Every structure is written in structure tokens, then in C-alpha cells.
């Protein structure tokens, strides 16, 4: 938008048309976040945490309901997408799908956090406020039709996430995680913003529709500015999803952050970042596919291999899961790099399945961490199957699902990715993906075998008398609900994948022109 | 738009006069006064008593939250300027939009008050 | 003003384009000041002095914005960066236990790496910018000391600033981001209180 056109428009009163119904999922979350603050102040101190958690879950459920309503509305009445607030915010099935994924992530994290805060004796209401604020940023990111809006969403999402990483104030590692995440996240935001500025310089607009139209109708003689912009944008996104070589923060942050927060980071932050990447890079910059495809291809290959190999050699379970999340990000990046519709559907399916899996996995890891959230060495997991048979079984299922075992959500997620990659003609990438899946299966089996093998009765007899008796793990109600729900969903998606598959295929990101 | 920049010429001249005046006075002073540098003259003046310790100390963390509160409302002020130039054209729409923005920011005061950040104990 | 107008009548040999002497000279002076101050930021051994040199860099940037007739951005630069960010930086320095005076032991062992990254980034951005814009000129309505007669026939020279246009964008297409910005600031402050409060 040039200054001249702005000045020409200056004599009309702006008051943009707001399509409230399409905006409703976002409004529910934002209003919920703003209300939680005064409400938490009014509640009696003792029950504050529990009520705040319930309120957060209600808000997330409300947003899911609103999304379902808008989805239904979109299918029924016609245009598959619409824009609200003058081209800044585009609601389509793609964004609605991801809003639901984000809200599921929020619900799982909230359920786990409730018990965690009480176990660790932390004051709590602000954790839920930050979840909701972060989720509203994520929703902005998945719906943004303008790079500036996308950036603001990214910042809301990230700033809340930085603080969440440091939520456990008495643990030094938690503070370290927050600081590392903050400093490196600040760098990546700067890269992203520079990319936005350069793309604005090259195309003269920050609106995604405008960029796509400009690039479709203009042949740029000098592409330096645009290409540098695309590169910097990809760096920003790759940092948020934890793709190699922008992954260095991941292990430390995952290890240090409170375990329920890791579930949140791994699901919501990733979903939002991938949504932004898909809409901006794959859709809006589709004319320059040949330029960004090799970059994403390289990041995907590196992430899959480095994530899988380094995960195997770790000795801390949370670090292992951090590297495994890099590996998962590599799979999704491989699907993104195809730039095809099947790839987008595969990413969406993967994100939905992964949110459930990671919620369940970190739910159990939270419990195994015990008070202090510190018992995450692989040796601490030895023989857990004997003492905690149900939890160990549940963790086994989640880990096997992450490895991609058939009849679980993880199998189809990986299958669709490889299918999309092979359909796009990248045989090598498919081969690398299968290799990485095999390597990472070692890792999950290692944790499972440690839980089941490990200690014999004799060892226990010898070791126990001196050590204080190991108490059974107390499972708070919230964690029970979260783990049970995650288990049911993991199996259900694995056995009856059709609804999710169908939804992920219908949910294509569109570019919504303002005024349509 | 050249008139805009011409009007900034006033600012520039004003700034130049200010710098020039201070420079002239100080320069004249250093030119006229006798110069006898001694280490004692560099000691911070503390009512005639020799100062103890360093002038810089580690500040309390709560100042930082005050500074952050300042940033929040500084940013609010930044958006008030463009609004002020067009406030009449917007009418009630503008009032509503700005009130919502300020209303959300007021939550920060509420949170600070709730957490007793504003109370100095 | 006649001198300025006369100076602006000079054009490059072989072209009719008048050189914008006053604006170019202003840019050059400010740019030199900013580069000098930026070098001082990274070479001074006193952390507080580095912050104050940073003020000079940011003030220079604000002046550059005003030179480009981007009044609002310039004022924002002064208010937010010089007013708020520097305050936060100084507070941040004072909160740490770092030595505030000269510190000869200030670790700068890795400065080669930083310099290489900076030079590469500068080269990339400079190349991209020059490659794209080459000798593009500033839009006419933002040139300094453009004689009023040259603005265009029958067109009234615009004297108002473009802050109103910025306002129209903020309260039009970017209304939602504005409100979300409120949420962002609130979340940041709630987070800061959660992290910094001691109890």
C-alpha cells in the first residue's frame, strides 16, 4: 500500500467490516483470557488453581464449539473461506482445523498443569492465563492473512511461551530454559521481521493475497530482496518448529521447562508455526516454489536424521523426547517441502495426531518426574512397569504410536507424509524418512524396554532398604482425564482414521482476498 | 511534503542553538578559568564527606516491573498520537476501538495491583 | 531557503534529475554519526556507556525517519526506543551484578565470529537492497525543499503529515492487530510479574 493510496483513502472513515461469526473462535479465547485475570483475583486462594483450570478448559471447549459451528456454516452456505476485518484475518477450514488442534493442546496441557502446580506447590492462575494468551496468538497465526498480523500472533504466542518455560521458579533449570528460549526466540523473531520487511520491500505489500497477486503478475528483474526475505522467513519458522540447524534451543528448553508446558510447546507452538509456514511459504509464495523447496528439503532431511540419531544417544528422557520432536518436525517439514495438497493434508493430520500423542506422553512423563520434576534420567524409569503397570502401559502405547506402529495415530501420520513425499516424486526424501523412522524406533523401544526389563525382585530387595521407600505415584484427577482422553484418541484415530483424514484433506489453506 | 521538513528546520535550528549555547558557555569557561587538575576534584560530592563504596549498586528487581509498566503505557501513547490526528473523523467508532485497546491494557494495572507489585513493603 | 533551492537545482551531468542536496547531506551527516556511535557501542568497555551510545544510534535513526518525512515512525522511535527500551536496558544492566564501571576483563574473545556474521549480514542486505532499488528516487512528495510549483499542475501541495494515513491504516485494516497488541502487552507484563515477583 503506497502512501498515496493511503492518503486517498484518508477521507473515508475506516470502520472495517467485521464478520463476527467467523471471528468467534478467536474472540472466545481472547475474551476468556481477559476475563480469567479478574476472575482469578476474585476466587478464594485455596481453590483458585482448580477453578482457573476449569475456566480455561471451558474456554477452550467453547472455542472448539465455535470452530465446529463456523466449519459447519462454511460447508453449508457456500464460500469455503471468508475474510474478516479488512483482509487481515482469514477464516477457512484450514484455520478452523488448526484452531481445534490448538484448543485440544490447551486442554491437555491445562489438565496436566493443574496437578503439576499442586504437586510443586506453585501459585497458579497466571499459568492458565498464559496458556490462553499464547493460544490466542496461535489462533492469530493460523488465521493471519497479513504478514504483520502473523508477526504479532507469533509474538503473543512466543512471549507467553517464554514465561511458561520459566514457570517453575524454584528450579534453576526452568529459569535457564526460559532465558535460552527467550534470547534465541528473540533472535528468530528478528529474522522473521527482517524477512517481512524485505518481502514488503520487494512486493510493496504485506498482505498475503497482495503478495501472491503481485508475484503472479509481475516478473521481478532482481529477486535478491525477495529471496533474502523468503530465506529469513523460513529461518524464523524453522526456529519455532525446531528444525535443524535452528534446533539448538530445543533439548535444553524441553529438559528444563515444566513437563506439562513442554506438551503445550510441542503441540500448540508447532501447530501455529507450521500453519504460518504453510500459508505464507507454500501458498502465498507458491510462484517461488523452486527457490524455497530446496531449503525446506535440506532442513527436513537434517531434522529427521539429526533428531533420530541424537535422540538415541541421550540419557535424559525429556532430552530424548526433545530430539524426537525435532525428528517429528523433520517429517512434517518433508511434507511441507512437497508444496502439494497431499503434503498439506499430511502435515495437518500429523499435527493433530502429534498433539494427542505428545499430550499423553508428557502427561506420563510429568507424573514420573515426581515432586521436583527432576527424575527424568533413563535409569529412573528402570522397572517402572512393575510399580506402575498402568502408567507404564499407557506410556508404551504413546511411544509406540510415536514410532509409527499400525493401529495407532502415529502410523497414518507417518504413512501420509511418506505417501505425499513419494507422490511428489521425491523418492530420496521418502527413503530418508523411512530410515529416520527406523532409527527413532530404537529410541522409543529403549525407553519401553527400560521400563519393562530393568529391575528384578532381588535388585529391589538389595537396593531398597537404605533408600527411602519409593512411594506409588499419585495421579491427580486432571492427569487421569488427560491421559485417558489421549489414549482413547490415539487408538481411535489409529483404528477409525477416516473422519480426521477427511477433515485434513478438506482443510486447504486459501488466500482470501479482502472484500470477497 | 517539503513544508513538513521545512517546519522541522525550526527544530533543527532550535537544537543547534541549544547545543551551541551550552558549548559556548562551557568553552568560554574552560578558556578563562585556571587549570589545576587534582585527583580529589574527581571524587563525587557527598555533602563534604568522603564517599563510601561505589555509586552504582545492584537495583531491585521490582523497579524492572515499574519500567515494564511504563513501556506498556508508552506504547499506548504511541497509538494515541495517530488516533488524535483523526479522532474527529472516526467519531464513536474510534472511541470504542481505543477504549477497547486501553481497556485491555488496564488489565495490566489490575494484575500488578492484585499481585501487590504496587505496594512498597 | 533560496540557497537551498539553488543547491537543489544542480543536477548530475547528463541527467535532468536535480540532486536533492540538502536531504543527501543530512542523510550523510546522520549516517556518519550513527556509524561512529554504533562502533562505540561495541568497542566501549563500560556497559552503561554502551547503552548511552546506543541512544545516539537510535536518535540518529529517528532523525533519518523524519528526513524521509516518516514523522510517526520517527516519533515512535524516540518514544519507544529512546524512551522505553533504553530504560529497560539500563534497568537490566543495573539488575545484574555485572560491574558497571570500566571492565578491562570484559570477554570479547569471540568478537571475530560476531564481526564475520555482521559483515556477511551487511553484505547480504546491502546487495539485496541495492540490487532491487538501484537508483530509485524518493517519491516526490517526500523530498525536501521541493519548490511548490513543481508539485504538479493544479495540485495543491500537501502540507499535512502522513500520520493521519497511518491512523487510517491502524484503525482500518489493522484494527485487529492493534487489539491483539493489547493482549500481547498484557501477557508480557503478567509474565514478567510471574517471573520477577519474589515470594
Summarize the structure in words.
The complex is a heterotrimer of chains A (516), B (121) and C (199). In chain A, 75% of the residues lie in helices and 2% in strands. Chain A contains 21 helices and two strands. A two-stranded antiparallel sheet of chain A has the order 1-2. In chain A, strand 1 and strand 2 form a beta hairpin. The longest helix of chain A has 32 residues. By secondary structure, chain B is mainly alpha-helical. Chain B has two domains: 36 residues; 63 residues. Chain B is 69% helix and 0% strand. Chain B contains three helices and no strands. In chain B, helix 2 runs antiparallel to helix 3. The longest helix of chain B is centred in the N-terminal third of the chain and has 31 residues. Chain C is mainly α and 199 residues long. Helices cover 65% and strands 0% of the residues of chain C. In chain C, helix 2 packs antiparallel against helix 3 and helix 3 packs antiparallel against helix 4. Chains in contact: A-B, A-C, B-C. Chains B and C meet through helix 1, helix 2 and helix 3 of B and helix 3, helix 4, helix 6 and helix 7 of C.
Amino acid at each position: 500500500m503506497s502512501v498515496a493510496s493511503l492518503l486517498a483513502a484518508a477521507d473515508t472513515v475506516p470502520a472495517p467490516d467485521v464478520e463476527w461469526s467467523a471471528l468467534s473462535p478467536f474472540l472466545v479465547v481472547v475474551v476468556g483470557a481477559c476475563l480469567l485475570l479478574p476472575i482469578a483475583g476474585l476466587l478464594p486462594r485455596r481453590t483458585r488453581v482448580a477453578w482457573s483450570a476449569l475456566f480455561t478448559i471451558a474456554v477452550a471447549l467453547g472455542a472448539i464449539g465455535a470452530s465446529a459451528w463456523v466449519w459447519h456454516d462454511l460447508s453449508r452456505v457456500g464460500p469455503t473461506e471468508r475474510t474478516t476485518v479488512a483482509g487481515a484475518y482469514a477464516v477457512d477450514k484450514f484455520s478452523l482445523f488448526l484452531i481445534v488442534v490448538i484448543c485440544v493442546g490447551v486442554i491437555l496441557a491445562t489438565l496436566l498443569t493443574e496437578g503439576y502446580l499442586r504437586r510443586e506447590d506453585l501459585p497458579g492462575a497466571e499459568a492458565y492465563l498464559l496458556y490462553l494468551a499464547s493460544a490466542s496468538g496461535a489462533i492469530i497465526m493460523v488465521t493471519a492473512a497479513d504478514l504483520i498480523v502473523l508477526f504479532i500472533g507469533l509474538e503473543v504466542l512466543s512471549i507467553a511461551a517464554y514465561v511458561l518455560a520459566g514457570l517453575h521458579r524454584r528450579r534453576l533449570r526452568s529459569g535457564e530454559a526460559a532465558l535460552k528460549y527467550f534470547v534465541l526466540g528473540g533472535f528468530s523473531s528478528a529474522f522473521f521481521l527482517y524477512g517481512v520487511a524485505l518481502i514488503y520491500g520487494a512486493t510493496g505489500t504485506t498482505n498475503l493475497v497482495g503478495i501472491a497477486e503481485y508475484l503472479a503478475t509481475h516478473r521481478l528483474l532482481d529477486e535478491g530482496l525477495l529471496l533474502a526475505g523468503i530465506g529469513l522467513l523460513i529461518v524464523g519458522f524453522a526456529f519455532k518448529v525446531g528444525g535443524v540447524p535452528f534446533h539448538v534451543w530445543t533439548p535444553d528448553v524441553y529438559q528444563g521447562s515444566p513437563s506439562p508446558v513442554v506438551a503445550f510447546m510441542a503441540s500448540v507452538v508447532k501447530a501455529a508455526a507450521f500453519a504460518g509456514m504453510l500459508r505464507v511459504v507454500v501458498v502465498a509464495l507458491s510462484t517461488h516454489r523452486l527457490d524455497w523447496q530446496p531449503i525446506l528439503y535440506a532442513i527436513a532431511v537434517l531434522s529427521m536424521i539429526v533428531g533420530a540419531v541424537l535422540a538415541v544417544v541421550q540419557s535424559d528422557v525429556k532430552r530424548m523426547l526433545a530430539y524426537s520432536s525435532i525428528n517429528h518436525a523433520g517429517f512434517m517439514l518433508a511434507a511441507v517441502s512437497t508444496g502439494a495438497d497431499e503434503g498439506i493434508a499430511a502435515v495437518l493430520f500429523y499435527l493433530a495426531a502429534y498433539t494427542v500423542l505428545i499430550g499423553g506422553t508428557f502427561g506420563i512423563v510429568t507424573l514420573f518426574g515426581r515432586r521436583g520434576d527432576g527424575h527424568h534420567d533413563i535409569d529412573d524409569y528402570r522397572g517402572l512397569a512393575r510399580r506402575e503397570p498402568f502408567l507404564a502401559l499407557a506410556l508404551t502405547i504413546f511411544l509406540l504410536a510415536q514410532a509409527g506402529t499400525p493401529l495407532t495415530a502415529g502410523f497414518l501420520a507417518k504413512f501420509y507424509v511418506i505417501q505425499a513425499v513419494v507422490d511428489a516424486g521425491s523418492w530420496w526424501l521418502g527413503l530418508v524418512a523411512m530410515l529416520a523412522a527406523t532409527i527413532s524406533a530404537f529410541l522409543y523401544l529403549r525407553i519401553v524396554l527400560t521400563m519393562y526389563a530393568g529391575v528384578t525382585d532381588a535388585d529391589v530387595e538389595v537396593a531398597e532398604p537404605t533408600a527411602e521407600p519409593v512411594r506409588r505415584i499419585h495421579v491427580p484427577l486432571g492427569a487421569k482425564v488427560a491421559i485417558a482422553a489421549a489414549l482413547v484418541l490415539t487408538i481411535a484415530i489409529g483404528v477409525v482414521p477416516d473422519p480426521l483424514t477427511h477433515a485434513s484433506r478438506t482443510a486447504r489453506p486459501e488466500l482470501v482476498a479482502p472484500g470477497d | 511534503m517539503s513544508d513538513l521538513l521545512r517546519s522541522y528546520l525550526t527544530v533543527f535550528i532550535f537544537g543547534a542553538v541549544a547545543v551551541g549555547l551550552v558549548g559556548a558557555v562551557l568553552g568560554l569557561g574552560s578558556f578563562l578559568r585556571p587549570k589545576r587538575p587534582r585527583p580529589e576534584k574527581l571524587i563525587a560530592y557527598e555533602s563534604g564527606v568522603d564517599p563510601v563504596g561505589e555509586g552504582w549498586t545492584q537495583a531491585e528487581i521490582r523497579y524492572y516491573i515499574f519500567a515494564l509498566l511504563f513501556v506498556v503505557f508508552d506504547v499506548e501513547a504511541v497509538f494515541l498520537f495517530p488516533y488524535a490526528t483523526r479522532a474527529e473523523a472516526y467519531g464513536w467508532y474510534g472511541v470504542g476501538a481505543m477504549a477497547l485497546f486501553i481497556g485491555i491494557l488496564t488489565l495490566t494495572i489490575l494484575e500488578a495491583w492484585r499481585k501487590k507489585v504496587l505496594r512498597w513493603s | 531557503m533560496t540557497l537551498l533551492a539553488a543547491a537543489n537545482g544542480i543536477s548530475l551531468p547528463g541527467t535532468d534529475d536535480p540532486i536533492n542536496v540538502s536531504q543527501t547531506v543530512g542523510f550523510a551527516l546522520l549516517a556518519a554519526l550513527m556509524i561512529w556511535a554504533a562502533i562505540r557501542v561495541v568497542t566501549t568497555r563500560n556497559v552503561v556507556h554502551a547503552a548511552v551510545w546506543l541512544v545516539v544510534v537510535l536518535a540518529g535513526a529517528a532523525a533519518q525517519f523524519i528526513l524521509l518525512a516518516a514523522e510517526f515512525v520517527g516519533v515512535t522511535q524516540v518514544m519507544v526506543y529512546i524512551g522505553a527500551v533504553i530504560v529497560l536496558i539500563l534497568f537490566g544492566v543495573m539488575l545484574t551484578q555485572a560491574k558497571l564501571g570500566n571492565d578491562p576483563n570484559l570477554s570479547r574473545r569471540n568478537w571475530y565470529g560476531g564481526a564475520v556474521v555482521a559483515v556477511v549480514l551487511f553484505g547480504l542486505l546491502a546487495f539485496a537492497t541495492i540490487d532491487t532499488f538501484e537508483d530509485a528516487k524518493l517519491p516526490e512528495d517526500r523530498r525536501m525543499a521541493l519548490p511548490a510549483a513543481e508539485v504538479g499542475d493544479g495540485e495543491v501541495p500537501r502540507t499535512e503529515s502522513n500520520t493521519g494515513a497511518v491512523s487510517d491504516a491502524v484503525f482500518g485494516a489493522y484494527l485487529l492487530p492493534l487489539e491483539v497488541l493489547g493482549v500481547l502487552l498484557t501477557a508480557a507484563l503478567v509474565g514478567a510479574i510471574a517471573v520477577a515477583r519474589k515470594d
